[in-house]
Amino acid sequence: MIGFYDYTVILTYVSLASSVIGMTQAIHGRFKAAVVLLAFSGLCDMFDGKIARTKKNRSENAKAFGIQIDSLCDVVCFGAFPALICYLLGVRGFLGMTVIALYCVASVIRLAFFNVMEMNNALITEEGEKFYRGLPITSMAVALPLVFMIQFFVPDRVFVVCLYLLLLVVGLLFIVDFRFRKPSNLTLAFLVSAITAALVLMLLYTRYPIHIRRAPMISQIFKSFR
């Protein structure tokens, strides 16, 4: 079989599988489940790089494969998946399609740029500090669950406006050139705790059920394009 198969890419594949399953949940109206799976994909992505670096004897081809497969999976997990959730939650019409398209384009540009920089080892300062240029695409796995919680406190129209703003702001930050220091282990622990707390609150207090809403008919979904 083609490809490279070892433990360094397992979390990446788990993240992708989680997002694909999450897409099916979103299509069936199970938005809580979808958002939980998005956050889980984000948690996997936070640690897959650290796990990959524990293997010291990887070939250059294996390292390059790891970089490419990670970004390809990220396109689905944090590009297409959040866009689908936002669409199904109300980001519709010409303006909505434009915002979603721009977000997806920005996410692809951000990942392609990251791949080039990572391959060239250009993301390290003279002091040896590692950083990102632009907002990491995984940040959507934190931002969307937090915004999703807002729908419990505000009217539906305000919630949808928040989704528009989320896609625009986060998408823009993907491609704005600023330095963002890579999180330390302590910061990662804090993020994991914060995400877990946010998900617990979301499951307890937001009004979208996990299993009750009926799946929208395919014909109804495509009516919005007319």
TrEMBL record:
GO BP terms in the entry? phospholipid biosynthetic process
Is Transmembrane helix given among the entry's keywords? yes
GO cellular component annotations of the record: membrane
One term of GO molecular function:
phosphotransferase activity, for other substituted phosphate groups
Task: Output the superkingdom of the source species.
Answer: Bacteria
Q: Which InterPro entries match?
A: CDP-OH_P_trans (IPR000462), CDP-OH_PTrfase_TM_dom (IPR043130)
| Pfam families registered for this protein in UniProt | CDP-OH_P_transf
Protease recorded as keyword: no
Q: Transmembrane segments in this chain: where?
A: 7-27, 72-90, 96-113, 134-152, 158-176, 188-208
Keyword annotations? Membrane, Transferase, Transmembrane, Transmembrane helix
Q: What is this protein called?
A: CDP-diacylglycerol---serine O-phosphatidyltransferase
* Source species: Enterocloster lavalensis
Tell me the organism's taxonomic lineage.
Bacteria, Bacillati, Bacillota, Clostridia, Lachnospirales
